[in-house]
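Following up on my earlier thread - several people asked me to post the actual chain instead of describing it. Fair enough. Here it is, all 185 residues.
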Amino acid sequence: MISYLHGQVKLKNKDNLVVVIDNIGYEVFVPAPALEKINLEEEQEFFTHEYLRENARELYGFLSHNELLLFRELIKVSGVGPRMALNVLSLGADRVREAISKGDAGLLASISGVGKKTSQKIVLELKGILSESLDINSQSTEEAIDVLKRLGYSQREASAALQHLSAAETTEEKIKAALKILGKR
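Reply from S.P.:
Thanks for posting it. Predicted structure:
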């Protein structure tokens, strides 16, 4: 199972890109917001979910581990496959979490390919499941990850260090705690 990729982005398409690692190109489907952030010829890290079908193997990539966790929760919902979950994440992970926690099935139903019944099912099944561990992708956590990356840590190291911290902590508190964790390694 491929769970992480780090390589150079060689090609961008409408809903996927090609990441080259050791002269092998991997097709990776990514959410629209991530696709917009990524530049060609840039080194990039992806937390991935490998999806196997009877005649195909697909990789879905995410810039943060917590976005991957949300994707995995979405595909557990009956009737939601990886492509639909990727469409849902086109809203951005924070907006999806907010919509689910507020019971806003209408926002989810406005996404291409997600009907009213499916959006209601997503809200119903995930409202109680989305715990603090999925709230790590808050704005303060993203800011902390950016700071840690500027200090020389990889996306993976920064995300792993922040994974067990409370979502209520400030950006500064998260950075200090993460540096303590990373310093022990």
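The chain has three domains: 4-62, 66-130, 138-183. That should answer part of your original question.
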